[in-house]
């Protein structure tokens, strides 16, 4: 396909560095892009960005996607100059071996996560489970140089570019920059909405939905819609089709539940109706494990109707996360159509 959206902006967002609590680089891009797409843009004390498009009524909708990506913080530098880490977000330690990273010390340093060659592994080492606490990063310098350049608290991010793979997109931090991108694209399309829309780029989602919880109190919307990636386990390693959750290329995903939220039936029902009316490819998502910013808005400032739109993504929480271009386009289309048709009169109460 020829992507009918700003692929260069998507690459800029996904390749930017921004671990939980330190989303500065992403925040700068978001503020720049929202400046011409919203009536006002502000940042709160935690670093959440809220871009408000004024509507014709006081009824307000929050649309949230998170800026942070999983990464690490330096917890120790050994006497030999190897860097040990504390995780910022949920890592599967199995995928960390032999990865390249950037250590953000006194200067940005390329590092590699070491892996002992199979030739020299003992039987005991072969049977051990990988743990993040066992990760050692080699920055290619002697101990004295590392001591001068790296200290406890420095940040570490995966080192990966974003690229096309046929009609698909692969790279790091598609979780959740690809959804952040979708909110920017929707904001650019919407003109003169009936309701006020707060486009929120949130912080610290990967460590407990912390930014969204604070924001739910701050802007106190009448309705909240969160966007995040979801599992697409449509790969050979997953034998049971029921465990795939979603499939790439089958459209945007309308969330029914995950481990943090059961979305409001009337909200996901209307999302489905809009998708069907507009002819937007869609699928329903029942995610057994994992949470999103949706939950951060549901009851933080009292009971609120909430919904969620997801982009199916393979290989989540790795540096090769993969999404389908048509699914991204469908997500932008659904979010735009839903917001343009929201007038504040829909009854989402039960």
UniProtKB/TrEMBL annotation:
UniProt key word Metal-binding: yes
Pfam family, one: Peptidase_M42
Binding positions (Zn(2+) 2): 175, 206, 317
Residues the record marks as active site: 205 (proton acceptor)
Keywords: Aminopeptidase, Hydrolase, Metal-binding, Protease
A GO molecular function held by the record: metal ion binding
Residues bound to Zn(2+) 1: 66, 175, 228
GO process terms (BP): proteolysis
SUPFAM superfamilies per UniProt: Aminopeptidase/glucanase lid domain (SSF101821), Zn-dependent exopeptidases (SSF53187)
Signal sequence extent: none
Bound cofactor: record note: Binds 2 divalent metal cations per subunit.
Keyword Secreted: no
Cofactors that this protein relies on: a divalent metal cation
Record family assignment: Belongs to the peptidase M42 family.
Protein name: Peptidase M42
């Amino acid at each position: 396909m020829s992507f009918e959206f700003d692929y260069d902006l998507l690459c800029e967002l996904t390749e930017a560095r921004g671990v939980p609590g330190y989303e500065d680089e992403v925040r700068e891009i978001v503020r720049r892009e929202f400046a011409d797409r919203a009536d006002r843009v502000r940042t709160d004390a935690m670093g959440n960005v809220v871009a408000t498009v004024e509507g014709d009524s006081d009824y307000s909708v929050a649309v949230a996607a998170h800026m942070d990506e999983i990464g690490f913080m330096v917890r120790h530098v050994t006497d030999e100059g190897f860097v040990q880490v504390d995780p910022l977000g949920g890592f599967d330690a199995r995928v960390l071996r032999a990865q390249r990273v950037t250590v953000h010390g006194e200067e940005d340093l390329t590092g590699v996560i070491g892996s002992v060659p199979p030739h020299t592994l003992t039987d005991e080492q072969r049977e051990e489970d990988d743990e993040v606490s066992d990760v050692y990063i080699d920055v290619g310098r002697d101990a004295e140089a590392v001591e001068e350049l790296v200290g406890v608290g420095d940040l570490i991010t995966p080192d990966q570019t974003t690229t096309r793979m046929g009609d698909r997109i692969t790279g790091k931090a598609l979780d959740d920059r690809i959804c952040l991108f979708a909110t920017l694209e929707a904001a650019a399309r919407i003109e003169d909405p009936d309701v006020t829309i707060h486009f929120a780029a949130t912080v610290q989602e990967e460590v407990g939905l912390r930014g969204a919880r604070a924001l739910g109190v701050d802007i106190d919307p009448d309705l909240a819609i969160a966007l995040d990636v979801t599992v697409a386990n449509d790969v050979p390693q997953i034998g049971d089709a029921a465990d795939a959750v979603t499939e790439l290329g089958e459209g945007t995903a309308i969330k029914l539940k995950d481990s943090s939220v059961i979305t409001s039936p009337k909200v996901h029902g209307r999302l489905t109706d809009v998708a069907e009316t507009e002819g937007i490819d869609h699928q329903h998502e029942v995610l057994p494990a994992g949470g999103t910013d949706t939950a951060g808005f549901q009851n933080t400032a009292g009971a609120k109707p909430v919904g969620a739109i997801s982009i199916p993504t393979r290989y989540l929480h790795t540096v090769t996360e993969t999404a389908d271009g048509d699914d991204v386009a469908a997500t932008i289309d659904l979010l735009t159509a839903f917001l343009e048709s929201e007038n504040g009169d829909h009854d989402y109460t039960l």
